């Protein structure tokens, strides 16, 4: 099957570019002691998770328990849920899953640790835990070293759980386009983490892992970093939001769409917010600058000079790759303009 035979909108991946992105990431971390634990949130595909492991990733990061269950089903062993799992019924599922794999989860409250410990003891498993430190995102995580120490010490004391390290994800810097500002903030975070490790060490707690990082800051980790494992996701596909970061990675994911209406200064495609997620910005097309872009449910209108006509197919770069993937049941893998595989988006809608 050829690209032109696909019905649109369709989600397509340039296999060569995607694999180059994966290889480039591994090459960047070569000769460092930093390991890769890429985030499943981007592709939501156990097949692509396996490809990342075959290329050298130590394991996979995901966000949700239901995603972790799919990864275990697919035979993946070393899994981090970079999130807190709090509901009692979910903790029971997590404890049973921990009996089948090396399961790590993030924590930032005493009650949650006690609940994890009780469930793991019942299930006869061990739940590995990273205590989350808020390093500026103002999402989850404790704020002070004292709070951090109390939780790490509790993990060392209770049965069924273990203290395995620090979760420190600076999502607030993921799309900081000002390089100086970004690099200064990342350096300040690294220094704070070094101080935390020394603080824990003085109190008898040996730290093992420091986990975090996104696509736009990986290049800095190569030189010197306190991080031991990185969780980037978007680097395999990229999107318009990351284009502004000028990373070394290239776009490999596109929404294939058809031009359904065209005027001299604008054209409209058959894909709107049901097919291209705009949560991190507007979609774009390679090589064309638009004056503005407007999305509605089933349409996107691009305003500006163009030479497209009704019936033309276009390859749209989504504003945000991860949330766009979540809109599709499948992704088509391409070698040039030949469709070579169909990859199910197993994690689509797995929000629990
Ligand atoms: C905890 C965590 N780690 C890693 C990532 C990966 O970030 P990116 O896809 O920007 O590389 C995310 C993205 O939201 C995240 O929430």
| Main β sheet profile | 9 strands, mixed
Give the uncertain stretches in residue-range form. none
Average pLDDT number: 97
| Percent in strands | 15-25%
Give helix and strand order, one letter per element, not per position: EHEHEHEHEHEHEHEHEHEEEEEEHEE
Please work out how many helical segments DSSP would assign.
Answer: 10
What does it look like?
Helix content is 30%, strand content 23%. The chain has 352 residues and is of the alpha/beta class. It folds into 2 domains: 106 residues, Lyase, Ornithine Decarboxylase, Chain A, domain 1; 222 residues, Alanine racemase (TIM Barrel, Alpha-Beta Barrel), CATH 3.20.20. Strands 1, 10, 11, 12, 13, 14, 15, 16 and 17 form a 9-stranded mixed beta sheet that branches. Strand 16 and strand 17 form a beta hairpin. Helix 4 crosses helix 5. Bound molecules: pyridoxal-5'-phosphate. Pyridoxal-5'-phosphate binds next to loops.
Short description:
The protein is α/β, with parallel strands linked by helices and 352 residues long. The protein is built from ten helices and 17 strands. It has two domains: 106 residues, D-serine dehydratase-like domain (Lyase, Ornithine Decarboxylase, Chain A, domain 1, Beta Barrel); 222 residues, Alpha-Beta Barrel (TIM Barrel), CATH 3.20.20.
Give short descriptive properties of this protein.
TIM Barrel; alpha/beta; single chain; eight-stranded parallel sheet; 17 strands; Lyase, Ornithine Decarboxylase, Chain A, domain 1
């Amino acid at each position: 099957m050829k690209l032109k035979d696909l019905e649109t909108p369709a989600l397509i991946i340039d296999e060569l570019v995607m694999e180059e992105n994966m290889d480039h990431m591994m090459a960047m971390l070569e000769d460092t002691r930093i390991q890769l634990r890429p985030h499943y949130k981007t592709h939501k595909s156990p097949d692509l998770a396996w490809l990342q492991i075959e290329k050298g990733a130590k394991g996979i990061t995901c966000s949700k328990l239901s995603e972790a269950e799919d990864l275990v089903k697919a035979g993946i062993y070393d899994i981090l849920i970079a999130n807190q799992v709090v509901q009692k019924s979910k903790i029971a599922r997590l404890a049973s899953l921990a009996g089948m794999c090396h399961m790590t989860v993030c924590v930032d409250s005493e009650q949650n640790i006690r609940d994890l410990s009780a469930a793991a003891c019942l299930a006869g498993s061990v739940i590995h835990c990273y205590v989350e430190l808020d390093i500026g995102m103002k999402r989850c995580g404790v704020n002070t070293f004292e709070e951090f120490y109390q939780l790490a010490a509790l993990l060392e004391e209770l049965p069924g759980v273990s203290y395995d390290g620090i979760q420190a994800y600076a999502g607030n810097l993921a799309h900081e386009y000002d390089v100086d500002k970004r690099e200064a903030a990342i350096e300040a975070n690294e220094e704070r983490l070094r101080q935390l490790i020394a603080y824990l060490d003085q109190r008898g707690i040996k730290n093992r892992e420091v986990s975090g990082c996104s696509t736009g800051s990986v290049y800095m980790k190569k030189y010197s970093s306190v991080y031991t494992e990185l969780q980037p996701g978007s680097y395999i596909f990229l999107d318009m939001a990351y284009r502004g970061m000028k990373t070394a990675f290239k776009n490999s994911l596109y929404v294939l769409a058809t031009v359904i209406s065209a005027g001299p200064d604008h054209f409209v495609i058959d894909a709107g917010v049901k097919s291209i997620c705009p949560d991190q910005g507007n979609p774009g097309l390679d090589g064309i600058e638009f004056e503005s872009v407007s999305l509605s449910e089933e349409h996107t209108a691009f305003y500006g000079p163009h030479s497209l006509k009704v019936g033309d197919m276009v390859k749209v770069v989504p504003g945000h790759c991860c949330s766009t993937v979540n809109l599709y049941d499948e992704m088509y893998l391409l070698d040039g303009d030949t469709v070579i595989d169909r990859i199910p988006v197993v994690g689509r809608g797995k929000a629990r």
